Amino acid sequence: MTVTALWNGEEIARSDETLVVEGNHYFPPSSVARSALVPSDKTTVCSWKGVAQYHSINAGGDINTDAAWYYPNPKDAAGEIKDHIAFGNGVEVVEE
């Protein structure tokens, strides 16, 4: 199954190797359009995954603030998603 992340009319990511954790598709880093990601200072903490770092998305002439996140140094229980990127905040994730 191929999974695509779309926002503001642009494809942000596409992969047939996403990992699903808590209902979110985590895309391998190589499957994400890095040019669409804008670094953010935002972080959050998950009790079992660890500290998430965020990116905003720049697509179609607009910015979607803090709409992508990843775990650069996840806790052992979430080690499989290291550096994989998930999307929220209106980003459409479609299973094909």
Automatic annotation (TrEMBL):
Coiled coil: none annotated. InterPro entries: DUF427, DUF427_sf. Keywords: Transferase. Gene3D superfamilies: Domain of unknown function (DUF427). Residues 3-89 form the DUF427 domain. One of its GO terms (molecular function) is transferase activity. This is Nucleotidyltransferase.
